[in-house]
Write a structure and sequence with these properties.
alpha/beta; 5 helices; 27% helix; 24% strand; globular; FBD domain-containing protein; FBL13/AtMIF1-like; FBD
């Protein structure tokens, strides 16, 4: 299969589209078609991601070097995102935008965090700061090859100095990791 350089996918509510009878099969076909991408921008606008399960997590994204994941709804991406990272063993760069929660499993850390990710950028937003700090802590702790960890804090953040202080105190799995707060 030829490699795709860059893929942009936006999955949104498709209940009104009659030909999508089996959403899981359709999602499996889509993810199989893009599994050779080197760079993937994935935006999900769904309140319920239950159909993004099953076969998707058996599709290897071995050539994926960069993933930008954007969550647009308060969906159940928590466990989905971590499971998807298990399919990306060679991921070098990860950008997370509007990720409101992530189900973290210390006993099942994605291989890409332990072996290949060199840069993570995470955009915080004004709510659920404690949850976002928990995600940042997990990524920093398990990112054994991290060189850069960039946190984008909103300007309006009232507790910005407290959040910065907490970020600076988080443990890191890589001695080479530099934390940048913008």
């Amino acid at each position: 299969m030829p490699y795709l350089e860059e893929t942009h996918i936006r999955i949104h509510h498709a209940e009104s589209i009659p030909f999508l009878v089996d959403k899981e099969v359709s999602a499996g076909r889509l993810f199989t078609a893009i599994s050779s991408s080197k760079s993937l921008y994935l935006a999900i606008d769904l309140p319920d991601m239950v159909f993004l399960t099953g076969t998707i997590f058996h599709i290897p994204f071995e050539t994926l070097n960069y993933l930008k994941y954007r969550s647009c709804e308060d969906n159940r991406e928590g466990s989905w995102l971590l499971k998807f990272l298990h399919c990306t063993p060679n991921l070098k760069k990860l950008t997370l935008v509007k990720v409101k929660r992530m189900t973290l499993t210390p006993d099942q850390v994605p291989l890409c965090l332990l072996c290949s990710i060199e840069e993570i950028k995470i955009t915080f937003y004004m709510t659920k700061i404690a949850e976002q700090l928990r995600v940042a802590s997990y990524l920093l702790k398990h990112g054994l090859h991290l060189q850069k960890f960039i946190v984008n804090l909103p300007v309006e953040q009232t507790d910005q100095s407290r959040v910065i202080e907490e970020l600076l105190c988080l443990g890191r799995g890589s001695d080479k990791c530099q934390l940048s707060i913008v």
